[in-house]
Amino acid sequence: MGLSSIAYDLGSGLNGPMSISHLSSPRQQLAFSAKSCTGSRACITVRAADGNSGSMRAPPSTVRASKLVTNAVAVKSETASIAATKSGHELLLFEALREGLEEEMERDPRVCVLGEDVGHYGGSYKVTKGLAEKFGDLRVLDTPIAENSFTGMAVGAAMTGLRPIVEGMNMGFLLLAYNQISNNCGMLHYTSGGQFTIPVVIRGPGGVGRQLGAEHSQRLESYFQSVPGLQMVACSTPYNAKGLMKAAIRSENPVILCEHVLLYNLKERIPDEEYVCCLERAELVRPGKDVTILTYSRMRHHVLQAAKSLINKGYDPEIIDIISLKPFDLHTIGNSIKKTHKVLIVEECMRTGGIGASLRASIMDNFWDYLDAPIMCLSSQDVPTPYAGTLEEATVVQPPQIVKAIKQLCG
Fold it and tell me: Is residue 167 among the annotated active site residues?
């Protein structure tokens, strides 16, 4: 079964469970190599490892590759038949994040969670619901409203051997901890001469919600992308949400996991067996030959909506969810560009200094000779997100704009 088109409605509001009330060493550089993952959608099926080791043991035969089938776009019949017979269980995206977190806390006693209301309240979006009762108040720690303090505490905990996960009640609030994230998380491995590793995961809801106001609609990807030493990924489906959560917790690098507030109620069938996604690998969502569309997070689903119209009009777009916002998977992206020779980037980040700007520069540096047309980029407007619903919608890229851009690009 594919993604539930009912659970994700482009015109709907936020129906989630929120209640009212430096990579300096060669070894770490190798960890960023995309060669370690194969296939358009890579994951590793693993057996439980020793709780104190934090290592993964997976025989070569367990490397799997598959493509997500979604109701938002027409797919080839053989792909649909594979999905129809696939075993597993259905979860909403926030439940998939919780399942991945819970599995890692069971596997490794060093894993702990801290943030505002993450304990017995279960988190603002219920990602940590039930974990305090299961693992205790010391491993699921409620903190005061002081982002700089508890983020700094997480960095210190990581330096002493723990593997903390920091939840920002809203990613915009983590601007209060920007010093700890940049000067401490990103740089301590380097400035300590490799004496310390900082295996911290920083996660929480972000993106333009549904009339949440400017301060709760922040897109911080571009803020953190420029910080040396940080790794950053964006989940877009329950499948990759769980797999990326597990991979981020196991990483020796500080990882920022970007979650979109309007995707928490997205439903998908995921495997029953344990799996871990690759932190450095993009996902080929739909193969095509006319144009490469690069996107991530919520815009993946806007692109898939636009693709229905494009396919009916005779276009054959190739859609790639870049997932890894730092570093980019230039291997997957480059292979697509060499085939299509045209690129459209669709993002919710701001146009000035956004992810799209960095991605466009990387493409021009590496694949200029393969381009037959200028790179187009659709981004959000460079304005604080309005509270009024109609104005808010006007600041974000919509499917009709994507269709229009592809027509212009492909002629």
Answer: no
